[in-house]
Write a structure and sequence with these properties.
By secondary structure, this protein is α/β, with parallel strands linked by helices. It has helices at 18-27, 44-61, 73-77, 91-104, 114-138, 151-161, 173-184, 218-228, 242-257, 267-271, 273-278, 286-308, 320-333, 380-402, 405-414, 421-434, and strands spanning 6-11, 34-40, 66-70, 82-85, 143-146, 167-169, 194-200, 203-210, 262-263, 338-345, 358-366, 369-372. Strands 3-2-1-4-5-6 form a 6-stranded parallel beta sheet, with helices on both faces. A 3-stranded antiparallel beta sheet has the order 7-8-9. Strand 2, helix 2 and strand 3 (66-70) form a beta-alpha-beta unit. The structure holds nicotinamide-adenine-dinucleotide, 6-O-phosphono-alpha-D-glucopyranose and manganese (II) ion. Its cofactor is NAD(+).
Length: 443
């Protein structure tokens, strides 16, 4: 009988996503039992607000689970089986700059896309590598599932600088979209879909979607998406914020460019940057919305639980973000070979793309981590887009490694959403000042 129980560490314990993960872990005590839950963050007061509420939730729902929240790497990373990483180096204050600096120059300002995403990448690399090194030092047999963004640049950096480490980079966007696809065709959830998908992170396409009997669902989904994008509406979308509504709807225009595939929502920033900038408020961007909504809700709710000393009327919920990362841990723990997406070195998964690109493709998840599945050839449109964007990501990592101003200017200039090298330089120079506490000093 397999009576193992696992120890899980959430790195970035102060993340707005932490309570959702805690609830999902509690929902899965039967099929992924945990003996210990640990939090690690480098911002003690932020983490404490979530930890204090979590302690009460655990006391009421799973008192047998040991709970530790720490800012000490040795205490946090010792005796751990799975690390769920979700740090944001520079926090929302820097995300705000990533969005507003490009917009001030008339360019898309976005968390993981364009100059904002590259700037975030140069902050994240050392933070995530530090987590990997703590894991290898204190729990060398553990696996890290990493959500910390920008996942494409982080994954390129870990591929190069920690090639043997047990980190698997992941994203919840295709997961969210697949829950929408399932709703569109009247299936219960994403696990009812069998799919083929390829691309880079936040930059990919579905090429085939079937139900478990092999029935092709692409025609029905395409017909719906051509009209509505991925917007489902009704009960499904009752908590979806306005900016996400517009992104899901815009997928109709992204789809129109290649009706042979179904696109990731993030392609809107690359294919319709003019529209995105015209519809942005340069003084009130997504960061402001997140701080006014998700961050406020999460921390207010934690404070309320702590003040009341009970979590009986808790409103936190499991969602696609938390269920995906728990599904992945369970698949590795029990060697299930479940087919799910990961962001991993290409090495042939997309035949006509650089083998050293870091791509997002379906993998079989089991005791050896993620084993990539071959997705065949990218069509010319996709190959062109992927090759350019992957070179942007590689140049960003080159710039971080070599402390090179020129490489970073090249990354900004090559990026599809930046109109010319002069604008790229203006944005870059503003970003160097804003990121002075985080970036390597560029020469
Ligand atoms: P958040 O700012 O609420 O939480 C991030 C936490 O990380 C903060 O508590 C912060 O103190 C901590 N932190 C920052 N630098 C750290 C370091 N070097 N060491 C330890 N802790 C550190 O952010 P959030 O909105 O909850 O998002 C968390 C992360 O998850 C972000 O990187 C976000 O982009 C990412 N994310 C990724 C996906 C995906 O699809 N891959 C989905 C959702 C969120
Ligand atoms: C999706 C993406 C993440 C991204 C998040 C931003 O979930 O997959 O990579 O971090 O959206 O959401 P937010 O609500 O913070 O703007
Ligand atoms: Mn993502």
């Amino acid at each position: 009988m397999d009576d193992r129980k696992f120890s899980v560490l959430i790195a970035g314990g102060g993340s707005t996503y932490t309570p959702g993960i805690v609830l999902t872990l509690l929902d899965h005590m039967k099929d992924f039992p945990i003996r210990k839950l640990k939090f690690y963050d480098n911002d003690a007061p932020r983490q404490k607000r979530i930890a204090d509420a979590t302690r009460i939730i655990l006391k009421e729902r799973a008192p047998e689970v040991e709970f530790v929240a720490s800012t000490d790497p040795e205490e946090a990373f010792t005796d751990v089986d799975f690390v769920m990483a979700q740090i944001r180096v520079g926090k929302y204050a820097m995300r705000d700059q990533d969005e507003k600096i490009p917009l001030a120059h008339g360019v898309v300002g976005q968390e993981t896309t364009g100059p904002g995403g590259i700037a975030y990448g140069l902050r994240s690399i050392s933070g995530v590598i530090e987590l990997v090194d703590y894991m290898e030092k204190y729990s060398p047999n553990a696996w890290m599932l990493n959500y910390s963004n920008p996942a494409a640049i982080v994954a390129e950096a870990t591929r190069r600088f920690r090639p043997k480490s047990r980190i698997i980079n992941i994203c919840d966007m295709p997961i969210d979209i697949m829950d929408r696809m399932a709703a569109i065709v009247g299936l219960k959830d994403r696990n009812d879909l069998v799919f083929r998908y390829y691309g880079l992170n936040h930059f990919g396409w579905w090429t085939d979607i079937r139900d478990k009997t092999g029935k092709d669902l692409m025609p029905e989904i395409k017909k719906y998406v051509a009209k509505n994008g991925y917007w489902v509406g009704g009960e499904f979308d009752k908590n979806t914020e306005a900016s996400w509504e517009s992104t899901f709807k815009k997928a109709a225009d992204v789809y129109a460019l290649d009706p042979t595939t179904l696109p990731n929502t993030y392609l809107k920033y690359y294919l319709y940057p003019k529209y995105v900038v015209e519809h942005a408020n340069p003084h009130h961007t997504r960061t402001d919305e997140v701080r006014e909504h998700r961050e406020k809700f999460v921390f207010d709710e934690c404070d309320r639980i702590t003040k009341n000393g009970t979590a009986r009327d808790l409103t936190f919920k499991s969602d696609e973000h938390s269920t995906y990362i728990v599904d992945l841990c369970r698949a590795i723990a029990y060697d299930t070979k479940q087919r799910m997406l990961a962001i991993i070195p290409n090495y042939g998964a997309i035949e006509n793309i650089d083998p050293t690109a870091t791509v997002e493709v379906p993998c079989l998840f089991g005791a050896n981590g993620a084993e990539r599945l071959a997705m065949g050839q990218a069509d010319t449109f996709q190959r062109g887009l992927i090759t350019e964007q992957n070179c942007v990501e590689k140049l960003a990592v080159d710039a971080w490694e070599q402390h090179s101003y020129t490489k970073l200017w090249q990354a900004f200039s090559l990026c599809k959403i930046v109109p010319d090298a002069e604008v790229a330089k203006e944005i870059l120079d503003d970003m160097i000042i804003a990121n002075k506490d985080y970036w390597p000093e560029l020469k």
